[in-house]
Design brief:
Layout: H1 23-29, E1 33-40, H2 48-62, E2 69-75, E3 92-93, H3 96-106, H4 117-133, E4 141-148, H5 156-162, E5 170-176, H6 184-191, E6 196-200, H7 206-210, H8 213-225, H9 229-232, E7 243-244, E8 248-249, H10 256-281, H11 296-305, H12 312-330, H13 333-336, E9 341-350, E10 363-372, H14 373-377, H15 382-385, E11 390-394, E12 400-402, E13 458-465, E14 470-477, H16 491-496, H17 500-506, E15 512-513, E16 521-523, H18 533-546, H19 560-563, E17 571-573, H20 575-587, H21 589-593, H22 600-607, E18 609-616, E19 621-625, H23 651-659, E20 668-670, E21 682-693, E22 696-708, H24 709-719, E23 737-742, E24 748-751, H25 761-764, H26 766-774, E25 778-793, H27 807-827, H28 836-843, E26 863-865, E27 871-876, H29 880-886, E28 892-906, E29 913-921, E30 927-936, E31 943-948, E32 963-964, H30 969-977, H31 1007-1032
Parallel strand pairs: 1-2, 1-4, 4-5, 5-6
Antiparallel strand pairs: 2-3, 7-9, 8-9, 9-10, 11-12, 11-14, 13-14, 15-19, 16-17, 18-19, 18-22, 20-21, 21-22, 23-24, 23-31, 25-28, 26-27, 28-32, 29-30, 30-31
């Protein structure tokens, strides 16, 4: 039950929404549960039955949530281990990772032998008893789900031993198949153990049949909630539960993300196949190569990007462009606007008839509403926490509701998985985002995972948010995070003293903004045409100064009655934040009208300065633009606007404040990571402004400038020279020198080759980077990413989708005959009747080649040589048959994994370095020593590095690309079994004394009454016929 809004369906997506399968519905409808699924894999289940059974198990798993515990046992003649051997003799939390493991293992099950029900039921009862007695798992409902095609006996001795006289474990049975004989025993197991029996005969009815167990688990809840109106006044009893869910994305079905991934891969294959067809069209005839040099590298480029000659940076630009096109073609409206993360609050709706005609406990449905996490975060205003301070919320299972390092989707522009939800996005543990400085993974232990790393000591404060299952934590940096600057202009008093015009002058002109995501003052609806945060702020500024007794309303939600009051517009405001902006605008007026040594045009022409700015702790940003009229035609329009208006949330703001403790007078330089892929990217220079007092120091603002990178680079290369070298009169413009400006994290700010800008220097010249590490210029910091995603290659020809029946052998026979016929057509050249290109391909010889996407191929094709027999380049020739294989991508499947990476930070005691590296080879292959010089640039976070370009060394590569942590099998099992810190839900209603007296059915068939009814009808019809005959006579 939700608000009355139109349900929008994207025409490009399947409509998979079913409210009964949503977490908020299932959590509200029943209490937490321990579930053991017994899956019959005896020989009689072979064929369609095992496929239906797998579908039943998959749907059961989809109804579980993180408050539940589960395990799956498959059983046949002998004692079988659980479906996942690591989960033997235990129950595991039903989080996304464990559920995904179960689902993956279900794809590979096989049937054999006879079913041993005694062993299976005994094992299930013993595991549940152990969990109950050891105070493990949910300590609430306990359930056995039996999925079988029939049981030969009732096995009463097992139930008498473990489930009598008190029925602690409910048994739900799913009878699979149309023609089944052993039905009575399966019905008895469910009906005598407070469960439900269902008969599943086809795939289409699986979901409907599986969901029948939920109302049964809800019966104690319904009975406990029925109240005596004379005693309770008609209100809900205390046992009527209100539940909150964990975080999830507002999409119709979580499995939709897997579908989006398949769409992406199909698009990749389509592009590759289209480019392959273009290569075939360019062929000149049978036996001849395609147009141009048919080199492996060139063919890979053309198949992937449609262009043969590409260097590494050009490939990266093409990949980013392809991603933007693919995202627009294949992604739905949901992913185009970004996923909205929400939590839901819900409560069950019961049948409350005063005098029911029969004893029932009926669940009518669930009522609830979604709460966007963005609305919750507004109640912990960032300005109160200060720069680099943050808040987060966790649920009772220790999973993150929101956190600044929570990354539910990929954000890297070159990743194929971009903008698609990660497999375990909503079960991110607190210990996976708050990472301590250790060198071993998976410690129950802060740095945020980025390409740049900062070590920081932090203080944590937390409190429970009653009556919800959530807890709120506040994190403040040690040192400057202890104090906060406060400065306001009281608007009501200023208006009384005639300062209205003066205050409005603080906000004159277009070059200012407030934080676009913070709540200063806003209406609860979109009835007012205030399209920008700037116009909204000005609107309320005028209103606050012109309205006598202006009411500063809190951000709390108002009751419905108050919303209906006539003539009142509902809005929320933050008085302190709003008036702090006025104070900061007043203080920065000197920046607005101040003039430096150079005018605007000279600033731009001389230094490439585009903007100067000041951003304050209230989210207020003011800037100047230095752009002469004759420069507008040479700069991209997007770069003319100042867009960094998120103040304390900007990366340069945070880095400047953190760097202040290293050098309070330093300016922090930075460029985007993709600066080398774009023209006219910007260099941002920032310096923090602290206010110091007897009570301590606190950051008040950050000032800085933005330069056009092209002019900044040009100025550097024309003026910088080799430092600390005697008799060196060359500048960095010389061909004999390679010059770099590196930042404090080892990223390239300026290079002679523009495509290297923004890259990690270890990717540019790993040999020199290794030397810098040896000289203690940088030091390594090991980081772990516990929200990583790895791609597993799906083996082609997998039979996981097939029905394991005798028909598969017929399929193999047909496939074999078909392949032989196709080969005959190829060898007889009859294919040219369909496509002449295929006939040409058949006449070419098939050779091996090296392809990183196709492991197992070892032989390297010959290289291209000139007329003298010397190698001209590294061009590996490929034939059209090899090209055909290259045109096919390896299908992949995303999998959650842990990754590790070494990041680098500048050593504070780093000194100038003058060194050389031996064993290098210069001009004419002569031995030489490659010298380099490094010095710190004063009052900045930059290092000037000058390298001898005439003596190249064999270049190694130091990458900061995260790599998967290769755990040994026992460590993987240990991690999966690790019980996280958690708090059980407060409400658990799994028993009610009146449940046994209910008149409701347990799913048992009514075949006997139906037969009696039919027999009575036949007898009555016969009597009527005899009576009629007598009348006629």
């Amino acid at each position: 039950m939700t608000a009355g809004v139109k349900w929008l369906v994207d025409p490009n997506e399947p409509d998979m929404f079913d409210c009964r399968m949503r977490e908020w519905y299932i959590r509200a409808a029943s209490s937490p549960k321990d579930v053991i699924i017994l899956l019959d894999l005896s020989g009689s289940m072979t064929g369609l039955r095992v496929e239906i059974a797998k579908h039943v198990v998959l749907n059961i798993l989809d109804t579980l949530n993180t408050n539940d515990y589960v395990n799956i046992y498959n059983f046949s003649q002998a004692a079988q281990p659980p479906l996942v051997p690591c989960f033997n003799n235990t129950l595991v939390q039903a989080n996304l990772e464990n559920i995904r493991i179960f689902k993956d293992r279900l794809e590979n099950i096989t049937t054999h032998g006879l079913a041993n029900f005694t062993l299976a039921l005994t094992e299930a009862f013993e595991v549940l008893t152990k969990a109950r007695e050891n105070n493990e798992s949910s300590q609430c409902n306990q359930v056995i789900m039996l999925v079988t095609d029939g049981a030969p006996d009732k096995f009463q001795e097992v139930f008498n031993t473990y489930n009598r006289p008190n029925i602690r474990v409910r048994v739900f049975t799913y009878l699979i198949g149309r023609d089944v004989a052993d039905r009575e025993a399966v019905e008895w197991m469910a009906c005598t153990n407070k469960g439900y029996f269902t008969h599943v005969t086809a795939m289409a009815e699986v979901r409907e049949q599986v969901q029948k167990y939920i109302p049964v688990l809800a019966r104690p809840l319904v009975l406990s909630s029925v109240v005596n109106e004379s005693q309770q006044g008609g209100h809900f009893s205390s046992q009527h539960p209100v539940i909150w869910t964990g975080v999830y994305a507002d999409i119709a079905d979580p499995k939709l993300t897997d579908w989006l991934w398949e769409i992406r891969e199909r698009e990749r294959q389509y592009r590759r196949s289209k480019n392959y067809q273009e290569l075939l069209r360019r062929s000149t005839g049978p036996g001849e190569s395609s147009a141009g040099a048919q080199c492996y590298e060139d063919m890979q480029n053309f198949l992937t990007y449609g262009v043969e000659k590409l260097n590494k940076s050009e490939r990266e630009m093409k990949e980013a462009e392809m991603y933007r096109e693919t995202k627009g073609m294949t992604d739905s409206e949901t992913t185009q606007r970004g996923y909205r993360l929400v939590t839901s609050i819900a409560m069950p709706v019961f049948d409350r008839l005063k005098e029911p005609r029969k004893k029932v406990a009926r669940l009518l449905g669930v009522a609830g509403t979604d709460v966007p996490l963005s609305d919750i975060q507004k109640h912990a205003p960032p300005y109160r926490l200060g720069v680099n301070g943050y808040s987060f919320i966790i649920d009772n299972n220790g999973y993150i509701l929101y956190h600044p390092d929570m990354r539910p989707v990929h954000r890297e522009a070159t990743k194929q998985f971009q903008e698609i939800l990660k497999p375990t996005y909503k079960t991110v543990d607190l210990a996976e985002v708050e990472i301590v400085d250790v060198d071993q993974p998976r410690f129950n232990h802060s740095k945020l995972f980025e390409k740049r790393v900062i070590k920081r000591r932090q203080k944590y404060f937390y409190t429970p948010l009653r009556p919800t299952p959530f807890s709120l934590a506040i994190v403040l940096p040690e040192g400057y995070g202890k104090k906060r600057i406060r400065g306001e202009v009281e608007l009501t008093q200023a208006a009384k003293h005639g300062e209205r015009r003066q205050i409005l002058e603080y906000f004159a002109g277009p070059n200012w903004s407030v934080h676009p995501e913070w709540v200063y003052c806003e209406y609860d609806n979109d009835a007012h045409s205030l399209d920008t945060p700037r116009s909204q702020y000005l609107h309320f500024l005028e209103k606050a100064m012109s309205t006598p007794g202006f009411e500063w309303r809190s951000q709390r939600l108002y009751p419905v009655e108050k919303l209906k009051e006539a003539g009142q517009s509902q809005y929320r405001s933050d008085r302190e934040l709003f008036q702090s902006v006025v104070f900061d605008a007043k203080v920065t007026m000197q920046f607005k009208f101040g003039r430096g040594q150079y005018d605007s045009a000279e600033q731009f022409r001389t230094f490439g300065a585009l903007h100067s700015f000041v951003a304050t702790r209230s989210g207020f940003t003011r800037w100047k633009t230095y752009l002469p009229d004759d420069a507008q035609m040479t700069i991209e329009p997007d770069n003319l606007r100042f867009t960094a208006v998120r103040a304390t949330d900007e990366i340069w703001y945070k880095r400047a404040v953190d760097y202040y403790r290293n050098d309070s007078n330093a300016f922090v330089y930075s460029v985007p990571f993709d600066a080398g892929l774009r023209n006219d990217s910007l260099v941002t220079v920032a310096q923090a402004v602290f206010v110091n007092s007897e009570l301590g120091s606190s950051p008040a603002a950050v000032v800085g400038m933005q330069f056009l990178h092209s002019k900044f680079r040009e100025k550097f290369l024309s003026t910088a020279s080799c430092p600390s070298l005697e008799d060196c009169e060359q500048t960095c413009a010389s061909d004999s020198l390679d010059c770099y400006l590196l930042d404090d994290s080892g990223f390239v700010l300026v290079s002679k080759r523009h495509e290297e800008t923004g890259k990690f220097f270890g990717d540019v010249d790993g040999t020199v980077m290794d030397a810098l590490l040896h000289h203690n210029v940088y030091h390594k910091v090991l980081m772990f990413d516990y929200q990583g995603v790895c791609l597993d290659v799906i083996p082609t020809g997998s039979s996981a989708w097939t029905l394991l029946t005798p028909l598969k052998y017929l399929q193999y026979l047909v496939s074999w005959v078909g392949s032989k016929l196709l080969w005959l057509l190829v060898q007889s050249s009859l294919l040219h009747l369909y496509d002449i290109n295929l006939a040409w391909a058949a006449e070419r010889s098939f050779g091996d080649y090296t392809d990183p996407e196709m492991p197992g191929v070892q032989n390297v094709p010959p290289v291209v040589t000139d007329e003298n027999g010397e190698e001209v380049d590294h061009c590996y020739r490929v034939s059209n048959e090899q090209l055909f294989k290259m045109a096919h991508i390896a299908k992949t499947k995303p999998r959650p994994c842990d990754k590790r990476v070494y990041l680098y930070t500048l050593s504070q005691d780093a000194r100038p370095v003058k060194a050389s590296m031996g064993y290098c080879h210069g001009i004419g292959n002569t031995s030489c020593s490659r010298g380099f010089v490094l010095e710190r640039v004063p009052l900045t976070n930059m290092l000037l590095l000058v390298v001898n370009a005439l003596c190249p060394c064999e270049n190694q590569r130091i990458s900061i690309e995260p790599q998967e942590v290769d755990y040994p099998p026992e460590a993987v099992c240990e991690r999966l079994l690790l019980e996280p810190y958690r708090r059980r839900p407060a409400n658990c209603t799994h028993y009610h004394v009146k449940e046994e007296s209910l008149d409701e059915m347990c799913g048992r068939s009514s075949a006997a009454p139906l037969a009696v009814s039919l027999l009575s009808s036949w007898l009555l019809a016969g009597i009527a016929l005899l009576t009629t005959s007598r009348v006629i006579v």
